[in-house]
Amino acid sequence: MPTVLLIDVPASRALGLEERLAVDGCLVRRASGWPADGLDATEVDVVLAHTANPAALALALRRLSRAPLVMVTDAAPTDRVAALTCGADVCLAETEADPVVEAHVMSLLRRWQPRVRHQLETVQVGELFLDPPGRRAQVAGEDLELRPREFDLLVALARSTGRAFRRHELLDQVWGPRFTGGVNTVDVHISWLRQKLPVAARVRITTLRGVGYRLDELSRLAPATPAEPTSANGGAAPADGNLPGETGASPSEAAAAPPETTAAPSANAAHPSANGAVPPGDAALPPGNAALPSESTDPTPAA
């Protein structure tokens, strides 16, 4: 049921509005000034205020609520224009008939209600759970301690996971179109959010250089393909991690090669002694054709 807050509305007009708005299915509450006791700014769907200083009241109310604001005043037309500049949606003269005031309230309520219903929906991204009506953010059942603007910023990003937001868009959605600060306000709050979002949330706030920010669900990101290990000569390494031999022969080539055989020495092969090389472990051979000691005979004396 939408809630209409009447601020400083005269009793004569308030009674008639309550009856007509109740028929339209609205809950009407009265207050003197703002904020009203026991009433959260997020619970208000439309505000109807009577005041002599509409611009100042509009500016004060806009800092607490983004709900549509209808103002009724006996101030000059220039003051009514100032009220619209400071955040009022409608600013009527005090002499305006009650049915006209009610029609403006219902008109704004019809445009606002789809946004209100959308804001009441819970959001689940990865392991992050957001409950806007309860102003609660949880990861694996554990509450996150977030400031009001941090919570609103996280909700705005989470409602459109994977969408790139420009900074001025986030300023308009979270801080409102009347906010006069710079876009660096968004950067500061994003930095705070990153510090408070645990790894278990399975979400990441991605910075898009020259654009803005995007909330990604990590479980939906494509896994990175590991680089294939390469050998020293630039080729792919074998599956078992062993590099091929220095000869570069592939396993198939090695299997096809005939078994190694011992080559017979050629007939004209040089004797080991010819180049001075002595086989290891063998005694040195005598030069020339001298007979070996085991083959010699006793010399016969000359006649």
Structure description:
- By secondary structure, the protein is α/β, with parallel strands linked by helices.
- It folds into 2 domains: 3-119, 3-Layer(aba) Sandwich (Rossmann fold); 123-220, Arc Repressor Mutant, subunit A (Orthogonal Bundle).
- Helices cover 31% and strands 17% of the residues.
- It contains 8 helices and 12 strands.
- It has helices at 11-23, 54-62, 77-85, 98-120, 148-158, 167-175, 184-196, 251-256; strands at residues 3-7, 27-31, 46-50, 69-73, 90-93, 123-125, 128-131, 136-139, 142-143, 165-166, 203-208, 212-217.
- A 5-stranded parallel β-sheet has the order 2-1-3-4-5, with helices on both faces.
- Helix 5 crosses helix 6 and helix 5 (148-158) crosses helix 7 (184-196).
- The termini are far apart.
- Mean pLDDT is 74; it is low at 234-303.
Q: What can be said about this structure in brief?
A:
This protein has helices at residues 11-23, 54-62, 77-85, 98-120, 148-158, 167-175, 184-196, 251-256, and strands at 3-7, 27-31, 46-50, 69-73, 90-93, 123-125, 128-131, 136-139, 142-143, 165-166, 203-208, 212-217.
Please write out the topology.
Elements: E1 3-7, H1 11-23, E2 27-31, E3 46-50, H2 54-62, E4 69-73, H3 77-85, E5 90-93, H4 98-120, E6 123-125, E7 128-131, E8 136-139, E9 142-143, H5 148-158, E10 165-166, H6 167-175, H7 184-196, E11 203-208, E12 212-217, H8 251-256
Parallel strand pairs: 1-2, 1-3, 3-4, 4-5
Antiparallel strand pairs: 6-7, 7-8, 8-9, 10-12, 11-12
Helix pairs in contact: 1-4, 2-3, 5-6, 5-7
